[in-house]
Amino acid sequence: MWRGDLMRKYRIKEGFTQKELAEKLQVTEATASRWEANVFEPSPTNAKAIAELLGVAFEDLYTSDLSPEQLRMVKAIPILNERGESFVAASLDASAVLVADHDFCPWYRSGDLLYVSSGDPLDGDLVIVEGEEGPVPGVLNLRNCVVVNPNGLHRYTKVVGRVGYMLERIGK
After folding, report:
1. Which domain holds residue 153?
2. Fewer CB within a 10 Å sphere, N or C end of the chain?
3. Which helix or strand (DSSP H or E) is residue 63 part of?
4. How many CB atoms lie within 10 A of CB 11?
5. How many structural domains does the chain have?
6. What's the confidence (pLDDT) of residue 123?
7. What b-and-e string marks burial along 58-78, b requiring 16 or more CB atoms within 10 Å of the CB?
8. What is the CATH number of the domain that holds 112?
9. What is the DSSP letter of 167?
10. Per-residue confidence (pLDDT) for residue 69, from 0 to 100
11. pTM of the predicted protein model
12. CA 102 from chain center: how many Å?
């Protein structure tokens, strides 16, 4: 989640006024003020520009750990990865699964949080299923009732949901 209070802290540390920061970012002072007050979140591109201007890592402007209560309140978490892609929430009704043990590029990496939304998944969608070993992320193969990931083929008892978006841990 965006942390405007951190933006303000780093801005002051760098010696910028809100007006100077806004001018450098080519936005109005009111926009910068709203970002700092958590009224609005900047776009991923603007957040990256803010981080570069303030000399901090991009992820330092966001909450690093989300509690279950915060996850339920999440509307959108715009994040940029190394390729400049952003992943934004598509739904308010979501649960999350942490990928702990393997990478499956370009779909996910170990350490990513995958947010699952309701909806009927189609063949080839990234989903979370309930397998013998618990929740399993992978690409759905409806014909054979399996999901495929780097650990192999997994039979499942039910599809928990389709992955709607993800929060990627940058730099890990």
Report:
1. 68-167
2. C
3. none
4. 19
5. 2
6. 87
7. bbebbeeebeeeebeebeebb
8. 2.10.109.10
9. E
10. 53
11. 0.45
12. 18
